[in-house]
Design a protein that fits this description.
alpha/beta; five-stranded mixed beta sheet; 14 helices; 18 strands; globular
Length: 426
C-alpha cells in the first residue's frame, strides 16, 4: 500500500506540472518516477513482475482451447501482417497496406461513429482483416495494432450479416493479458463496487457519456446492477475520487458509470469525471493496484487513445489492465447514455447466469438488436461501441447467493430423506 501511495503521489504531481506546462519540473519528476520504478524492480521483484514478466508463446498456446483463434495484427509502411495463433499452430499472412486499404478502414470507422449514417455491410474489409480459417473457430481474440485499435470486429461482414451473429469476440492489448494476471486468489463470491456520480441537469438534445451532464441511463444502470450482485454503491455525491481510491479493490467487479474526457494531445491527461468535478487521470491509474476480475469503464472513449513512445496505445482501458484488472469493458466512441444502459444491464444479467464475459456481452448486444424496432437504432453506433479486453473466464466460481445455495441444499436433503422413508416403508 505504501508503494502504491508513493507511485500515485509522484504521478499526481506529474499531472499538475503537465497541466502547467512546466517542462523542467516535468523532466525532473519523470526521472524521479523512473528511479522509483527501478527501486521497486530491484527490491520487490514479485510486485514489478506482473506487468513486465517474460512472455512464453508455448505456455500461452497450451492454455488455448481448440475453439479459440487469436489474431494479432502488425502494420508496416506498405504491408499488414495477420498472425493467426491456435493451440497447435502459428501462421503469418502478409497483405498490402496501401492508401486504398487505409481508406477502407477509415471510411468504415466514420460510418460507425455517426448515429445518422446509412450503414451497409462491408465484405471487402472482412477479406482484408479476417483469414479464411476463422470458419473453424467459435471464439476470436483480437490483438489490434494502432490503425485498427478503434475498430469493433463485431461489425465486420460474415455470411452476409454482422460477425457478432456467429462468433464471440474479445480483445487484448497484449498476448499476456488474454489469460489474466494472477495478482491474488480469486474470490468465491461475486461482489460489485459501483461508482455513478450525478451531474448538473441541462437541456441537451442527445446525451452521450462524454459531456458532463446528468446521465439518467447511468443512474438506472447503477440501480439495476446493485440488485444482481452483492454491491457497494457510490452514487451521486458519494462517487468521489477519494472513495474510488479507497474502495476500488473491494469487489471482484468494478463498474464506473460516468463521463470520461479524452485528451487527444496528451493521453496521460485523459480522465474520469467523478463527483464534485474531481478528476482521476490516466497517469494516476498506472500507479494504482486494482486486482479485480472485471472493470467496466461505462463512459465515452475509454478504449481509444494515442500511441506512446513504446508504440502502444495509451488508453484508460490499458491503464486499468496494467493496474491489475484481468478484464476490462471499454468504449470506442462517444456512446449514447440510454442504449448503453440497456446493454450493460443485459450484460450483467448474463454474467449472473454464469456466461463467459465475451459470451455475455455478445448476447446482450444480440438481445438489443432483436428487441429494437426502429431500423435507425440498429446501426452499430448504438450497440457496437463497447468491447471486452483481457481474460474471458466467468466472473466467479459460483453465481448463486447464500440463500439460494441454502435452499437448494436443504431441498436436496429433504428429497433424499423422503425417498429413504418411502423405500423403508415399502
Amino acid at each position: 500500500d505504501s508503494l502504491e501511495n508513493i507511485d500515485f503521489q509522484l504521478r499526481k504531481q506529474l499531472i499538475e506540472v503537465k497541466r502547467e506546462k512546466d517542462l523542467k519540473k516535468e523532466d525532473s519528476l519523470k526521472k524521479e518516477l523512473q528511479n522509483f520504478k527501478d527501486t521497486v524492480s530491484k527490491n520487490f521483484p514479485i510486485i514489478a513482475n506482473y506487468t513486465q514478466n517474460v512472455f512464453n508463446i508455448d505456455d500461452f498456446q497450451s492454455q488455448l482451447d481448440n475453439r479459440q483463434l487469436v489474431l494479432k495484427y502488425l502494420f508496416f509502411y506498405d504491408q499488414l501482417a495477420v498472425i493467426s495463433i491456435t493451440k497447435n499452430n502459428i501462421k503469418i499472412e502478409l497483405k498490402p497496406w496501401t492508401q486504398s486499404e487505409k481508406n477502407l478502414v477509415n471510411e468504415h470507422l466514420v460510418y460507425l461513429k455517426n448515429p445518422n449514417s446509412n450503414y451497409t455491410l462491408n465484405s471487402e474489409l472482412t477479406n482484408l482483416l479476417i483469414p479464411d480459417m476463422v470458419n473453424n473457430y467459435n471464439a476470436i481474440i483480437i490483438i489490434p495494432d494502432a490503425p485498427i485499435y478503434n475498430l469493433p470486429f463485431e461489425t465486420l461482414t460474415y455470411n452476409s450479416d454482422f460477425l457478432i451473429k456467429e462468433k464471440t469476440i474479445h480483445y487484448s492489448s497484449h498476448l499476456r493479458f488474454i489469460h489474466g494476471l494472477n495478482l491474488e486468489k480469486k474470490r468465491k463470491d461475486t461482489e460489485t463496487t459501483i461508482f455513478a456520480p450525478s451531474y448538473p441537469k441541462e437541456k441537451v438534445d442527445y446525451v452521450t457519456r462524454n459531456y458532463p451532464v446528468f446521465l439518467e441511463g447511468a443512474q438506472k444502470e447503477a440501480e439495476r446492477l446493485a440488485v444482481l450482485f452483492p454491491t457497494k454503491s457510490f452514487i451521486g455525491d458519494d462517487a468521489t475520487k477519494s472513495n474510488f481510491i479507497e474502495n476500488k479493490s473491494e469487489g471482484n467487479i468494478l463498474h464506473l458509470a460516468m463521463h470520461a474526457t479524452i485528451d487527444e494531445t496528451d493521453p496521460s491527461l485523459s480522465h474520469f469525471n467523478f463527483a464534485n468535478n474531481e478528476k482521476l487521470f490516466l497517469e494516476e491509474v498506472y500507479a494504482l493496484k486494482i486486482p479485480t476480475d472485471l472493470a467496466v469503464l461505462s463512459a465515452c472513449n475509454t478504449g481509444i487513445g494515442k500511441q506512446d513512445n513504446a508504440l502502444s496505445m495509451a488508453t484508460l482501458q490499458r491503464a486499468f489492465n496494467y493496474a491489475g484488472a484481468k478484464t476490462t469493458v471499454a468504449s470506442l466512441w462517444e456512446v449514447p447514455d440510454e442504449t448503453t444502459s440497456q446493454i450493460m444491464i443485459a450484460f450483467y444479467q448474463y454474467l449472473k447466469k454464469g456466461k463467459t464475459k465475451s459470451k455475455a456481452l455478445q448476447q446482450a448486444k444480440l438481445d438489443y438488436l432483436n428487441q429494437v424496432e426502429n431500423p435507425r437504432f440498429k446501426q452499430p453506433y448504438y450497440w457496437a461501441g463497447f468491447v471486452l479486453y483481457g481474460a474471458d473466464a466467468p466472473v466467479a466460481q459460483s453465481f448463486l447467493d447464500n440463500k439460494t445455495i441454502f435452499l437448494l441444499v436443504f431441498g436436496g436433503i429433504t428429497l433424499i430423506f423422503g425417498i429413504w422413508l418411502f423405500f423403508r416403508k415399502k
